[in-house]
Structure formats: C-alpha cells, structure tokens
Design goal:
The chain is of the alpha+beta class. The protein is 33% helix and 34% strand. The protein has three helices and four strands. The protein has a four-stranded antiparallel beta sheet, with no helix packed on it. The termini are far apart.
Length: 112
C-alpha cells in the first residue's frame, strides 16, 4: 500500500517528466495541475531531491544549462553561462559547475 505522500510524490514526478522541456518549471504550476497545495508540494520535494529522484531544492527559481537563479534570504542570485549545473545548495552556499559568464545579485525582494 502506498501512502498519501507517496501517491502525491509519484504524481509530481510524472508531471515533471511530462511537462519538463529542459527549462524552468515553476512548482506553482505543478501544484495547480496536480491540485496539491504549494505548501504540501514544498514538503514533498525535499524528500524526492534527497533520494536523487528530482533535481532542485527550495530556493531554486530557475535551473537551465545557461541560467541558474536562486532565491536567497535577501534577494536573487542569477548566474549565466554555458553547461551550468547546480551540484549542491545549502543555506549559506551554492556550488555551480560549468562555464560561468556572469553572476549578478539583486537584493531587496523576491523574484517575479
């Protein structure tokens, strides 16, 4: 028997597989399509990330090979380049691999 959390986790993974086109996929859209509250989805995703079933983590706004945008406590860090890959993300550090061309920080608010 699969738990409710397990059923939602499977629905989220299927949704990501179906709608991912190599670009940014807002969790708000996944939550709406699957009729799951965003708060509940935010509790499920760390479990999937920890098991390497889903890439991403709380704070990731956009993750593509050419652009990584991360929400920090006070603003948004944007890294642009080629072959970018977010290898690790913690409260106080981000490890981004690839050819970094620019890194900018916009403080004072949340990303649009």
């Amino acid at each position: 028997m699969i738990s409710t959390r397990g059923r939602y986790a499977l629905r989220v993974m299927l949704d990501l597989a179906e709608h991912r086109n190599g670009g940014y996929l807002p969790m708000k859209e996944v939550a709406q399509r699957q009729e799951i509250s965003l708060k509940y989805l935010e509790r499920i995703l760390p479990l999937l990330t920890k098991q390497n079933l889903v890439e991403g983590q709380h704070g990731v706004i956009e993750l593509t090979e050419s652009r990584v945008r991360l929400r920090t406590g006070r603003g948004v860090l944007t890294v642009q380049g080629e072959g970018l890959r977010l290898r690790a993300l913690s409260v106080d550090a981000a490890l981004i691999e690839g050819h970094v061309l620019t890194a900018t920080y916009a403080g004072g608010g949340r990303a649009p």
